[in-house]
């Protein structure tokens, strides 16, 4: 049976598989270690990366910290950012690009300044994380300052559904909180101070307070808590 | 509540400072250890029989004893890349009691003779990494970290290294690659890290909670510590309970408590009017178990959970109640592993991808019950065929979901086909045992045909 080539579904770049649009330009020479004479690197970036390199027996261990530093400076791991890190670390840009593309926290495409990672993994999605993600996209999706991304488990299932806003863990979220997050970030305030994870006590204490606190309890319980004599 | 090694007074904000920690007897166990021979410290760890809290449950003392003696560059790495879905114990422990981890690492480092140690913390744990950085700086200033600690001959450095978001870096060899500044791809084992690990030197890698046990073992004595918990699962365990429960959170219990007490007693059980359909006993990589009494009455320890066909893993219970479709959970689980597969070896890279595709067909109603058999056989072929256990970590829960909840999958397929107007699925062809390790159920009233070779 002959296959009609016009019926084969293709991506915009003409291939049947995704991911070929960033392919290397084979007409160019491979990029070598950037020349310090022609690659301007801000002094504080150089100092910070060099301090990181000094911490390890092998300087290459500082690849991830260096990428964190340049991404913070440039907003994303742009070719310039990677070139600067490569120049200080004396590595090829290809090496650092390979590292940057592996990890979820590095972005090799332009992104908004404020990271909002919404956890959509199992524990959070059992409690409606997909709805929270949609609401978050609704609230901040069109704002170029925000980078809303569904994320795998962020390790805070006790406050599910949750999100990490510029590294600050907040939860349990409701759909109405998304607009508040956007407002708080824009105003430069602390994000949802009443829902920050770092202020939460350990589970036993937290739920004891909630149960005694009466109607404020998020999920009121018939069980009197850990002190219940039935236990 | 039982013994609380970690959670007793952990909410005290002073505990995060060196003064507050020292007031509660902090770093005394380090001094005690340094006064002993390294071999004696190692013996205490062996006597404690404490098993790794990161997932594999391998005995900590035994792992330490694999590190060769003699003078060479040896490394100690703390695995704080806690990314297993459902697990959040290390986050709380590090944030609230960072010095206990540092002390544990110094004791472990002394026992194996490591002079360089690293805490590999996941990049998302920004606040926790800051807390650790501050604690390390304090401990360094006080002379607990650095050259000739407290005037003894032992020298140990400690670096907090932030990762950048990759589940696979929780796998020990992938973590080493990431720490060396590469993509986090797992390595072929052997050589095991104890022989050739970080920078090709002997390396001990332990989970945060495991290392935090070391000061407690020194204080209580290994033999005394071993009396906590059960014979084969000693000590206490911080259990992360999440999902459909009323009071999610971390609870510290002695190993061997009934699961019912954890899920219903401490965490309050499922929301009112609902019942537990299934639960992950040890993070999303552990095979699911049904929420029936038989399984709820299991003692929560390594051996009992393993005997029931699952694993204790990282000690994270995710509860799924009867309002949730198991198909949705399966899709979520499989998608997670597809996203996190590093792509180095084929069974995992392709297996996770095709499992997601098949599950999505099940979800949308384009599948037939035969797809469940194909999917189960794919899982069978992933298990044990990869460099690391990420592939297995998807195959085990998905395989167990199909095994335990096959009827629900089939009902879902039928309902979705009906909804889409596709009509009944093609009747299953009986392929006997050729169809893989999960043979298809034989259609009622039909004699099984002999296998065609």
In terms of quaternary structure, what is this? heterodimer
Helix content estimate of chain B: 40-55%
- Rough outline of chain A: globular
Q: H/E element string of chain A?
A: HHHHEHHEEEHH
Structural class of chain A comes to alpha+beta
Total number of helical segments of chain B? 18
Please provide the ordered H/E string of secondary-structure elements of chain B: HHHHEHHEHEHEHHEEEHEEHEHEHHHHH
What amount of the residues of chain B lies in strands? 5-15%
The averaged pLDDT of chain B comes out at 91
Beta strands of chain A, count: 4
Biggest β-sheet of chain A: count, sense, barrel? Answer: 4 strands, mixed
Describe what you observe in this structure.
The complex is a heterodimer of chains A (231) and B (453). With 231 residues, chain A is α+β, with helices and mostly antiparallel strands. Chain A has helices spanning 43-54, 63-74, 79-89, 93-102, 122-126, 129-140, 177-187, 203-212; strands spanning 114-119, 146-151, 163-165, 168-170. Chain A has a four-stranded mixed β-sheet with strand order 2-1-3-4, with helices on one face. The model of chain A is unreliable at 215-231 (pLDDT under 50). Chain B contains 18 helices and eleven strands. Chain B has helices spanning 18-23, 28-35, 38-48, 60-65, 89-96, 98-112, 126-141, 172-179, 208-220, 222-225, 259-266, 293-296, 302-307, 326-340, 346-364, 369-382, 390-404, 406-419, and strands spanning 75-80, 116-121, 157-162, 203-207, 236-243, 249-254, 257-258, 276-280, 289-290, 299-300, 316-321. The model of chain B is unreliable at 430-440 (pLDDT under 50). The chains are: A alpha+beta (231), B alpha/beta (453). At the A-B interface, helix 2, helix 4, helix 5 and helix 8 of A face helix 5, strand 3, strand 5, strand 6 and helix 11 of B.
């Amino acid at each position: 049976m002959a296959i009609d080539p016009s019926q084969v579904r293709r991506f915009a770049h003409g291939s049947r598989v995704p991911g070929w649009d960033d392919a290397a330009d084979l007409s160019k020479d491979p990029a070598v270690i950037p020349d310090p004479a022609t690659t301007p690197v801000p002094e504080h970036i150089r100092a910070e990366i060099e301090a990181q390199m000094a911490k390890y027996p092998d300087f290459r261990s500082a690849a991830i910290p260096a990428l964190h530093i340049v991404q913070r400076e440039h907003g994303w791991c742009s070719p310039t950012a990677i070139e600067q890190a490569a120049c200080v670390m004396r590595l090829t840009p290809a090496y650092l690009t390979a590292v940057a593309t592996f990890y979820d926290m590095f972005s090799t495409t332009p992104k908004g300044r404020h990271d909002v990672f919404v956890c959509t993994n199992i524990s959070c999605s059992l409690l409606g994380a997909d709805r929270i993600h949609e609401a978050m996209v609704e609230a901040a999706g069109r704002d170029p300052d925000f980078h809303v991304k569904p994320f795998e488990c962020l390790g805070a299932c006790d406050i599910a559904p949750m999100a990490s806003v510029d590294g600050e863990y907040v939860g349990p979220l409701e759909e109405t909180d998304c607009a508040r997050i956007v407002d708080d970030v824009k105003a430069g305030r602390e994000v949802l101070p009443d829902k920050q994870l770092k202020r939460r006590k350990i589970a036993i204490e937290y739920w004891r307070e909630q149960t005694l606190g009466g109607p404020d309890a998020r999920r009121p319980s018939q069980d009197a808590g850990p002190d219940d004599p039935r236990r | 509540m039982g013994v609380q090694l970690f959670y007793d007074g952990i909410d005290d904000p002073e505990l995060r400072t060196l003064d507050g920690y020292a007031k509660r007897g902090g770093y005394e166990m380090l001094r005690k250890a340094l006064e002993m021979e390294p071999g004696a410290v190692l013996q205490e760890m062996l006597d404690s029989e404490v098993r790794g809290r990161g997932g594999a449950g391998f005995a900590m003392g035994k792992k330490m004893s694999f590190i060769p003696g003699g003078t060479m560059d040896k490394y100690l790495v703390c695995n704080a890349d806690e990314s297993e879905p459902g697990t959040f114990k290390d986050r709380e422990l590090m944030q609230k009691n960072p010095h206990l981890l540092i002390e544990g690492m110094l004791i472990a480092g002394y026992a194996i003779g490591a002079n360089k140690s690293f805490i590999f913390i996941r990049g998302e744990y920004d606040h926790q990494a800051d807390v650790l950085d501050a604690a390390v700086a304090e401990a360094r200033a006080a002379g607990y970290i650095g050259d000739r600690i407290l005037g003894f001959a032992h020298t140990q450095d400690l670096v907090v290294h932030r990762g950048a978001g990759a589940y696979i870096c929780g796998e020990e060899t992938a973590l080493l690659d990431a720490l060396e500044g590469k993509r986090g791809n797992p390595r072929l084992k052997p050589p095991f890290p104890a022989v050739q690990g970080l920078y090709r030197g002997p390396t001990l890698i332990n989970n945060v909670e495991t290392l935090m046990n070391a000061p407690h073992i020194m204080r209580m004595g290994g033999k005394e510590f071993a009396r906590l918990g059960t014979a084969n699962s000693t000590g206490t365990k911080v259990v992360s309970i999440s999902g459909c429960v009323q009071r999610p959170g971390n609870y510290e219990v002695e190993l061997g408590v009934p699961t019912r007490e954890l899920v219903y007693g401490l965490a309050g059980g499922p929301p009112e009017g609902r019942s537990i359909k299934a639960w992950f006993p040890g993070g999303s990589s552990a095979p699911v178990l049904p929420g029936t009494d038989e399984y709820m009455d299991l003692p929560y320890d390594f051996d009992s959970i393993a005997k029931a066909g699952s694993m204790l893993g990282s000690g994270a219970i995710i509860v799924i109640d009867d309002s949730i479709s198991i198909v949705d959970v399966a899709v979520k689980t499989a998608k997670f592993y597809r996203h996190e597969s590093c792509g180095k070896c084929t069974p995992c890279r392709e297996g996770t991808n095709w499992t997601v595709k098949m599950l999505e067909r099940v979800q949308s109603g384009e599948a037939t019950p035969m797809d469940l058999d194909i999917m189960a056989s794919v899982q069978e072929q992933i298990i044990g065929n990869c460099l690391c256990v990420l592939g297995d970590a998807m195959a085990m829960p998905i395989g167990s979901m199909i095994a335990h909840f096959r009827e629900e999958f089939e009902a879902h397929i039928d309902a979705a086909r009906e909804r889409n107007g596709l009509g009944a699925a093609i009747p299953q062809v009986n392929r006997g045992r050729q169809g893989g390790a999960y043979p298809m159920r034989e259609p009622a009233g039909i004699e099984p045909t002999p296998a065609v070779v």
